[in-house]
Write a structure and sequence with these properties.
Layout: H1 4-15, E1 18-22, E2 32-35, E3 38-61, E4 78-80, H2 86-101, E5 108-112, E6 132-135, E7 138-162, H3 165-176, E8 178-179, H4 185-197, H5 205-215, E9 221-225, E10 228-235, E11 238-245
Parallel strand pairs: 4-6, 8-10
Antiparallel strand pairs: 1-7, 2-3, 3-5, 3-7, 6-7, 9-10, 10-11
Helix pairs in contact: 4-5
């Protein structure tokens, strides 16, 4: 199944730009994508922001062992699933099916987007008309909660940087790959232990020297934290991704 991100990138590739409305950025940490075997960089720009209303539907299976003194009669009314408008059936189908399959006895939640369901197309939002739902012979209590959030409009533009993965990998090598050489026997032992085991404690004077050597080169990724980064290293004929923290 194609994702929402895939749809946006496809639109940007086809039309030059694409827009969407949401609460969070999609490409704030990673802006390189592979689409149809072509590699692109994505420019994500915030255009506008506005307040929006969202609704969360809580669905609770009604207990079967109810005390005779307990009043569980609905305040608004009962509606069968097959009588719901198409909007509500689409929103609830996957959640109810998943919950039934797991015999979930707890709460099931469905979030309603503010614009996806227009007025008069839902019996739950913006005005709740029923507080009981009958589904597959079981009765559920339905609650509706309203929450406010900020919706942001984002614009996306893409730039092709490589016609295939191999071409992109070669660009990365040209830009970041360095050869680690000129090491002492003790420093070589540090690197070879890291290669063999996958990790090594950087606590000795020799390991600190190796770290300093690696950090002199351009990092593939240096914004992971104040004292960590990733490098692309060539050593003794092999190429390695090196993650360091110090």
């Amino acid at each position: 199944m194609e994702s929402k991100e895939h749809d946006v990138i496809r639109s940007a590739v086809k039309n030059g730009t694409a827009t969407r409305t949401g609460q969070n950025r999609w490409f704030d940490r990673q802006n390189t994508v592979l689409f149809n075997q072509t590699v692109y960089t994505v420019n994500e720009t915030q255009l506008a922001s506005e307040k929006a209303t969202r609704y969360e539907i809580g669905i609770y299976p009604m207990p079967e062992d109810i005390s005779p003194d307990e009043d569980i009669s609905p305040e608004l009314g009962v509606i069968r699933y097959d009588k719901l408008p198409p909007t509500d059936r689409r929103k609830l189908n996957r959640t109810l099916s998943r919950g039934s399959a797991k015999e979930n006895s707890g709460e099931l939640n469905v979030e309603y987007e503010p614009t996806a369901e227009g007025a008069n197309r839902s019996v739950f939002v913006p005005k709740q008309q029923y507080d009981r739902l009958q589904y597959n012979g079981k009765l559920y209590r339905v609650t509706v909660e309203r929450a406010f959030s900020s919706d942001v409009e984002y614009q996306y533009e893409v730039t092709e940087i490589a016609g295939n993965v191999e071409g992109f990998a070669e660009q990365i090598r040209d830009k970041y790959l360095f050869t680690l050489d000129g090491l002492s026997p003790a420093e070589q032992a540090v690197i070879e232990e890291a290669i063999e085991t996958g990790e090594v404690a950087w606590e000795s004077e020799d390991s600190e020297s190796v770290i300093s050597n690696i950090r002199e080169h351009r990092a593939l990724k240096a914004d992971e934290g104040p004292n960590e980064g990733t490098w692309l290293m060539k050593y003794d004929g092999g190429e390695y991704l090196v993650y360091l923290y110090w």
